[in-house]
Amino acid sequence: FSAIPTILLALTIVAALGSGIFNICIAVTVTRIPGFVRIVRSSVIGIADMEYIEAARAGGTEMPRILYKHVMPNAMAPLIVQTTMNVSTIILLAASLSFLGFGVNPPQPEWGALISEAKEFLRTSPHLMFFPGILLCMASFSMCVLGDGLRDALDPRLKS
After folding, report:
1. Distance between CA 160 and CA 158 in Å, rounded?
2. Cβ distance 93 to 31 under 8 Å?
3. One pLDDT digit (tens) per residue for the chain, 160 residues
4. Quick one: which of 73, 83, 79 has its CA closest to 29?
5. Per-domain residue ranges for the chain?
6. Cβ neighbours for 146, distance < 8 A, ≥ 6 positions apart
7. Residue 34 near residue 82 (C-beta atoms within 8 A)
8. Can you give the pLDDT at residue 103?
């Protein structure tokens, strides 16, 4: 999945399934899952090599208990940060699909659809495109800032 651009893959999925909020959710999920899987896998591999995991194994602790008590809590911080950072990408991806006409159905308001409808009035009423665009950028930026703050708070290497 990494070789295929996200918007192209999402566009293909939505074109095959049809427009609508449920199909956009499916397309976004399919395109964003590989990144989450990579993060979880690398976190679990890194945690599994830690000394306290080896000590728990040597002490006779069963694997499900090690997973639930040691591995999962330590693997959650990178996953939470990845989730908040991806929300901005998901917002922009959904808006892009709506801008191209593959998004939510017309009675539902959506930033991409609002910007797309405002294209024909750009010369006479630029505010119709300006405000949805600014709100889209602000929402995306605020999620990036939230993810950055969570990374700073949850990353033990940055606490010194």
Report:
1. 6
2. yes
3. 567 888 999 999 999 998 888 999 999 999 999 888 999 999 999 988 889 888 988 999 899 998 888 888 888 888 888 888 889 999 999 999 999 988 887 788 889 999 999 999 989 999 999 999 999 999 999 998 988 888 888 776 666 5
4. 83
5. 6-154
6. 84
7. no
8. 84
Tokens of 47: 């945690």
Tell me the residue type at 66. I
Query: Tokens at residue 92, please?
Result: 């922009």
List CB contacts of 74: < 8 A, sequence separation 6 or more: 43, 47
Query: What CA–CA distance (Å, rounded) separates 130 from 110?
Result: 14
φ/ψ of residue 59, rounded to 5: -80, -5
Dist CA 25 CA 31 (whole Å) = 10
CA distances (Å), origin 25, targets 7, 29, 69, 79, 117: 13, 6, 32, 19, 22
The answer to whether 35 touches 86, Cβ cutoff 8 Å, is: yes
- Nearest by Cα to 147 from 87, 76, 72: 87
